[in-house]
Amino acid sequence: MSFARGAGERDPRAVAAPEAAGAAAGVAAAHPDGPAAAHPAGPAAFRLADGGLDPRTLVLYAVTDRRWLDGTTLEEEVARAVEGGATMVQLREKDLGRDELLDEAVRLREVCHAVGVPLIVDDDVEVAVAAGADGVHVGQSDMEAGAVRALIGPDMILGVSAQTVDEALLAQERGADYLGVGAVFPTGSKDDALDVDRETLAAICAAVSIPVVAIGGIGRDNVRELAGTGIVGVATISALFARPDVRLAAHDLLVRTRRMLDGVRCALTIAGSDSSGGAGVQADLKTMQANGVFGTSAITALTAQNTRGVTSIMDVTPEFLGEQIDAVFSDIRPDAVKVGMVSATPLIRTIAERIDRWRPEHVVVDPVMVATSGARLISEDAVGTLVAELLPRATVITPNRPEAEVLWGHEIQTEKDMELAAAEVGRRLGCAVLVKGGHSLADASDVLWRDGECRWYRGRRVENPNTHGTGCTLSSAIASNLAKGFGLDESVMRAKDYVSGALAAMLDLGAGSGPMDHGFDLASRFVEGPGE
Q1: Which residue among the candidates 295, 472, 473, 514 is catalytic per the annotation?
Q2: Where in the numbering of this chain does the Pyridoxamine kinase/Phosphomethylpyrimidine kinase domain appear (predicted)?
Q3: Which phi and psi (to 5°) does residue 461 adopt?
Q4: Is 99 exposed, middle or buried (0-12, 13-18, 19+ CB in 10 A)?
Q5: CATH number 3.20.20.70 is the correct assignment for the domain at 39-262
Q6: Could you give the C-alpha distances from 53 to 175, 248, 368, in angstroms and in order?
Q7: Catalytic, out of 139, 469, 473, 514
Q8: Average pLDDT value for residue range 202-217
Q9: 90 annotated as ligand-binding
């Protein structure tokens, strides 16, 4: 048996990819789920004190396929995979003769051991032993697991494929160190691969004490669906080796797999700093925390402001903004991105370029252009760049009424006008549009246009003069809920409920338009004061 390759997996990098940080010698620093590079070569290096296989070696299991080579060698592509974060490599080349397979195994062993990653040989026990590989993987139609264990001894790693609980239990009894279970998604690499549904996968994980890796059709777009099944990692072929940049694909899938296993969702805010804490990045990070995601940030500008107004603004350089975004994506990849106020054309273009480079799943843009007074906050040329280069890259944009008027080109006086504006702007930009009615109309009802249809979100206006940061808060709450896996409609609804609650808490700080209470729904013994 061989691990299955996903059929029809979409290329996650249709644009130029950034260089991954570090070369082979630096993998350990960016390789938190794998064994330390200082491990001595050999199977014992990958075992725990009790003799069991360290499950961290299975987080991202790369399975080779020479058919994807395009002017490069298999060693070069495997080196790129482990540099990107692959934690185990299986040599699976059915079309090679025994001598060629042995030579390839020896070469890959050196590549893998140089960075502390185990090498497994598929099916061929003799080649695995002769090459000094760390283990062998067999399927149900290959040599029986107990016989393999007798040949390789107690130290080499033994992986076995299983598709039922009975097969899994028998493999564990016969000496398997880990199980490969699948195909969990449709796959085209093996005609006789059976589908294993989520319930069976979870049942196998619950039945055995050895680690389980999911196999078959797994890629960047579906790995999250495996959360909560009990697996310790994923195995894949084309999601790595069919990609134009194997190193970046490995890093991307490693981050997504770790996120799936850990259950932590992250969001990135790209916005300005508000020294008063009511809007901008400060409001975004509070909102993200309150909505159950880990917030990260990239600062576009520093402001000196309080509840009475802004006294000074200092933009960061486009280079530094790009470095911040790269630093976040290359280590703590966000599940969603919120973009707030960006006043300068070069900064807007930097964000657009980084969106193309890193391709986040969800991008929420709050197109901050017009103040409550009606005054423009960014220049005409910056507005043009925003509309032409950034907004079309968004999942959804969240203009208030004056901003929607700028984008639409007409005055908005009625709910029908809001619908027309949302539809026209959405068709023109190719994204969903949420036009907010709370800015000056009688209520707090918003309309979302998406996929040719409008949906209203009716809201009750909260009579609170302290509304500083409501737009920032709404957009970052939408991003937070998208990051957690909610659909757009539900994300908007949940975000509106959150903003309403923050306003209804009636926080009153400062002499001007003060902030909302972003932590109104947080309960913790650490917020208590003396005597409480």
Answers
A1: 472
A2: 274-517
A3: -65, 130
A4: exposed
A5: yes
A6: 12, 27, 52
A7: 469
A8: 96
A9: yes
Q: Looking at residue 508, what is its pLDDT?
A: 87
Give the up-direction half-sphere exposure of residue 330: CA atoms within 13 A in the CB hemisphere: 18
Catalytic (active site) residue 470: yes
- The reply to whether 217 sits in an annotated binding site is yes
Residue 484, annotated as binding a ligand: no
Residue 489 labeled ligand binder: no
Domain extents in the chain: 39-262, 266-524
- Architecture field, domain 266-524: 3-Layer(aba) Sandwich (3.40)
Is 467 considered catalytic here?
Answer: yes
Contact of 247 with 24, CB cutoff 8 Å: no
Q: What is the Cα–Cα distance from 185 to 82, expressed in whole angstroms?
A: 24
Spell out where 123-226 has E strands.
135-138, 157-162, 178-182, 212-215
257 is catalytic: no
122 has binding-site annotation = yes
- Catalytic site includes residue 303: no
Of 296, 385, 467, 473, the active-site residue reads: 467
Catalytic residue check, 97: no
The 8 Å CB, 24+ separation contacts for 130-138 are 130/102, 130/105, 131/102, 131/105, 131/106, 132/41, 132/106, 133/91, 133/105, 133/109, 134/42, 134/43, 134/46, 134/109, 135/43, 135/159, 135/177, 137/1, 137/3, 137/90, 137/161, 137/180, 138/1
- Residue 396, pLDDT score: 98
Is 338 assigned a ligand-binding role in the annotation?
no
Q: Are 109 and 116 in contact (CB under 8 A)?
A: no
Q: Which residues contact 62 (CB under 8 A, 6 or more apart)?
A: 78, 81, 82, 86, 88, 89, 90, 235, 236, 237, 240, 241, 250
Q: Output the CA–CA distances (angstroms, integers) from residue 29 to 34, 40, 83, 112, 129, in the order listed.
A: 10, 17, 10, 16, 30
Predicted TM-score (pTM) of this structure: 0.66
pLDDT tens, residue by residue, 353-404: 999 998 898 999 999 886 554 446 788 889 999 999 999 999 999 999 999 9
Give the sign of the dihedral formed by CA 398, CA 403, CA 404, CA 408. negative
Sheet holding 432-436, edge to edge: 309-315, 294-306, 266-274, 336-339, 363-365, 396-397, 432-436, 446-450, 453-457
350 annotated ligand binder: no
Rounded Cα distance, 219 and 228, in Å: 17
Active-site residue among 470, 473, 496, 514?
470
**Catalytic residue from among 6, 87, 280, 436:** 436
Active-site residue 469, yes or no?
yes
